[in-house]
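User: Could you walk me through two proteins back to back? I'd like the raw sequence and the structure tokens for each, with a short line separating them so I can tell where one ends and the next begins.

Assistant: Of course. Protein one, sequence then structure:
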Amino acid sequence: MAKDSQVLDLNSSYSYLLWCRDFADSSILATVDGEPAGFITGYLRPDEPGTLMVWQVAVDESFRGRRLAASMLDRLARQVDAQRVETTITEDNEASIRLFTGFAGRHDAVLEREPLFTRDQYPDNHDTEFLFRIGPLN
């Protein structure tokens, strides 16, 4: 799904297997009729255990438009009892901006946005990643 999204940074299959082993409790997989439909990978920040850092969100193309990403994000935040949610989003990723802005609205939470890693910090000219910090959640 990450590869098929054509927008997510790809990790090795090894890193995804490690992620599933070590961060299964802070990640989620959605299935529809037994078929994988979407996933969110995340972790609780070691220095802020009440903060869920969302790493990747993907929904298979055939399941888009069903609010699956929003449902997974709401469920995952409840699952880990998050008080805050963080993610990074590039300026051109309108779908993710809508997803996390909507999440903040549904949870009556403040959304703060600031550059976290700017283009000049990357060796490969990656776009600036903006930190979206949402919370406290209600």
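----
Protein two, same layout:
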Amino acid sequence: MATTPESELLDASLKLLKAIDAGDWKTYAEFCDENITCFEPEANGHLVVGLPFHKFYFDLPSSGSPRLSSATSPSVRVIGDVGIVCYARLVQKLDASGDPVTVTADETRIWHKVGGKWKHIHFHRSPA
């Protein structure tokens, strides 16, 4: 079965989430443009530019707690060399008491195809 730009983008987005869950900075950074921009809750309403803001979170000590992200109801749209991936992200993890919880966020990720490879250039994440 031939891959489509839509399937490539969804696969890249899922691999990105897996890298985030695993605390795998190397893989995360490979997917991202060095000047990636974002709006996310951790930025308190400010536009963040570049990778250093994100690396801070990857450098924090791991809790050792398992974490699994799922992208539900994904929507993928390709416009030329730009792709937009939207989904509700469910993150399963343990709370401070060790009880399993699921938190939800709505995410939009923008990708740009450069030299035949998709690069993550912007995202917006809002708590659901």
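The chain has a mean pLDDT of 95.

Let me know if you want the two compared in more detail.
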